[in-house]
Amino acid sequence: MQNILNKLLDGIIPCLETKFAITDKKGHLIYGGDMEKAMQSSIRICGAKFTLLADIPPSILKDFGLLVEDYINTRLGSKILDCLLGKENPPEGFPFPCGLLLIKSPGKLEDLLYELFKTDLIFSMPDTTLLVILQLDNLNELKEISQALLDSINEELCVKTIISIGRISHSWEEMSMSFKEAQKALDFAPKINSSIVSYNDMIFERLLLSIPNETRKNFVNEIKQKLDLLDKDTRKTIRVVLDCNLNMSEAARKLYIHRNTLMYRLDKIANSTGLDLRNFKDAVKMEIFKEIQ
Amino acid sequence: MASVVLKNVNKIFPGDVKAVIDFNLEIKDKEFVVLVGPSGCGKSTTLRMVAGLEEITSGEIYIGDRLVNDIPPKDRDIAMVFQNYALYPHMNVYDNMAFGLKLRKLPRAKIDARVKEAARILGIEDYLNRKPKALSGGQRQRVALGRAIVREPKVFLMDEPLSNLDAKLRVLMRTELSKLHNRLQTTFIYVTHDQTEAMTMGDRIVVMKDGYVYQVDTPKNIYDHPANIFVASFIGSPQMNFIDVKLFAESDKLYVSFGNAKLVIPDEIKNKINPSYMGKEVVMGIRPEDIHDEPALLERYPEYCFYTNVDVVELMGSETFLYMDFEGNTLTARVDPGSSAQPGDKIKIGFNMNKVHLFDKDTTNRIF
User: Fold this and answer.
1) A240: contact with B, CB 8 A cutoff
2) Nearest to B118 by CA among B150, B83, B92, B91
3) Of B59, B38, B37, B63, which is closest to residue B50 (Cα–Cα)?
4) B224 with B194: CB under 8 angstroms?
5) For range B257-286, the mean pLDDT
6) What's the confidence (pLDDT) of residue B203?
7) Tens-digit pLDDT profile for residues B279-308
């Protein structure tokens, strides 16, 4: 990933009056000229460590480093966005296949991400989301990383974070598509109350959200009238059965009732509402109601 | 190591959904407390409030002497183990366990010492270089536990950590966790909907339903003296039998009657019952193992016996379950595997009346 980062940096390193140079972690010069006697400071660009060399007093070197770091990272975010949206020609030789994550969080996640994705690319996007591009070819692995990342964020920072998982891309076109889908999924996330979303796994939710408001309202009212006839425990039974993917034994265990008691409750629900959870079409109606109410 | 205190804790979600209602509990230092209850009872929400992952609507939570209501999770000195035990697939076991410590910028030597010690405790020293995909479910769960152990928290919070494991492994890990608690000598708060886990692991059990605490006590006391019908039915498998009975006194003795059966209540219990219940209908509970069909016992205690019809006989190997019908009441008995009862038989059974439980029909609370 270091090589591609060096290419992305081309043209966006600021021209300042203060002379400085940047080298990558192998010591290759990325920007500037020979500055052998200059002071050195470590800076992070897209999560990767670089060395900043500047001929300035040590007391202001750190601040100067932060300034350069912020300037470059901001512009890199815009540049990668332009590449993904097709507004700018992307650099050649990108190490595909890649997976991407879009992360929306009010917390400062950078340190955590830098520690976690040492050889991957982390961009701060102009809309304050973070884009992580990981060199991997397995979507399940990307999903596992997302779940573990969410747990770490919960444990370490406790901020409400949404992670949107993109598909595995083998070209810039695919990555551009994956990025746009991840953005859409991120917008959907609050509506389905989920912390990890994946556009391709959201066909059902996307379909439901595309139903006109009036039609949705009518459907909800129609089912709600029927379910209002039931007591709280029975309504909870429906929710648990749906959460258990209609696995009756699992639902009975979670409700801590005998399977036969669950069957009796389902009979009662069917008698009073006309909706039988054991009937697939009726279960679909209840699931839609649960999703859009 | 620390105590945990929850004082009048409430959690109300938007839409006035009351998830936890007036929760009060003092968990002692080094105690293993299990929160148990059916789905939606508020147990996970309670745990998440202790962790700081869920804001509390009102009340106070203390860890040690410190009020932690407004303290973020990372500063609460707790470690959580979830049921999905997500591990980073691109990191080996060592790095997965060390990750949280690296973020906290602990010295490398300290991280190394803690990871190796946790690996030793959990018996996963040989797997430290392996990636998670090369591990079995049980090994992955151990690594997840390891991630919590290395933080050396004052309190471990575990949310159904074994529910993703198969039945055999769950039983094994149950023992492992109890051993781990003994070794670490730290406070454990453990959430499960599995009453066997609760009974076998907890020093104390908190039984919850619909956001309320129904009983807090040791497993033995919960089993032997359930505070209400819900707890009595929730703990124990097969569950306790319940029969509507009438309490009445006759020639200085106290009896319960149901159908044509009339059984005497032992004096020890009789003296504990409030006289206002005389002549009233109450609910009698009796556990399956307290129903007997052994002829020697039945002869010895004729005043506790009556006849019933056997519907189903289940041979379990070390025991036999008899499912019987007595005038519309279904009774389950756990009897000796040598029992000769067969489906369709009319047999004589006896209740161990010293072990009966009586509950108020309206409040469902225990009456002695």
Assistant:
1) yes
2) B150
3) B63
4) no
5) 92
6) 96
7) 999 999 999 999 999 998 888 888 889 999
Does A38 lie at the interface with B, CB-CB under 8 angstroms?
A: no
Contact A145 B82 (CB under 8 A): no
Inspect the interface and report whether the beta carbons of B37 and A256 lie closer than 8 Å: yes
The closest alpha carbon to A100, from A115, A120, A114, A127, belongs to A120
Query: What pLDDT is attached to residue A1?
Result: 64
Query: Does residue A187 sit at the B interface (CB-CB below 8 Å)?
Result: no
Residue A283 phi, psi dihedral angles, 5° rounding: -65, -40
CA–CA gap between residue B4 and residue A81 (Å, rounded): 48
Please say if the pLDDT value at position B1 is more than 70. no
Chain segment B210-261, per-residue pLDDT in tens:
999 999 999 999 999 999 999 999 999 899 999 999 999 988 899 999 988 8
Tokens of B308: 């019933």
| Cβ pair B174, B95 in contact under 8 A | no
Q: Please judge whether B39 and A236 are an interchain contact, meaning their C-beta atoms are less than 8 angstroms apart.
A: yes
First-last CA distance in chain B: 37
Backbone φ/ψ region at B317: left (φ over 0), alpha (ψ -120 to 50), beta:
left
- pLDDT, mean of residues A67-77: 86
Q: What angle do CA B113, B119, B123 make, to 5 degrees?
A: 145
Of B80, B84, B89, the CB nearest to A141: B89
Q: Give pLDDT tens digits for B306-363.
A: 999 999 999 999 999 999 998 888 899 999 999 999 999 999 999 999 999 999 999 9
- Round to whole Å and give the CA distance between A112 and A125: 17
Residue A57 tokens read as: 């007093």
CA distances from residue A19 to A24, A61, A66, B315 in whole angstroms, order as listed = 17, 12, 15, 87
Joined together, the tokens standing for residue A259 give 């399977």
Lowest mean pLDDT among A10-24, A273-287, B74-88, B176-190: A10-24
**Which of B38, B74, B195 shows the shortest C-beta gap to A156?**
B74
What is the chain B residue with the closest CA to A156?
Answer: B74
How are strands ordered across the β-sheet holding B66-67?
Answer: B17-27, B4-13, B58-63, B66-67
- Residue B95: other Cβ atoms inside 10 A: 17
Of A62, A45, A41, the closest CA to residue A53 belongs to: A41
Section B58-86 average pLDDT: 89
Closest CA to B348 of B286, B282, B303, B284: B303
List residues of B whose CB lies inside 8 A of any A CB: 37-40, 52-53, 72-74, 79-80, 82, 84, 86-90, 99-100, 102-103, 132, 193, 195, 234
CB atoms within 10 A of CB B77: 18
A137 inside 8 A of chain B by CB: no
How much is the pLDDT for A159? Answer: 81
Contact A148 B86 (CB under 8 A): yes
Chain B residues with CB-CB distance to A236 below 8 A: 39-40
Contact B99 A156 (CB under 8 A): no
And the tokens for A157?
Answer: 């920072």
pTM score: 0.81
Q: Which chain B residues contact residue A239 at CB under 8 A?
A: 40
Report d(CA B155, CA A209) in Å as an integer. 42
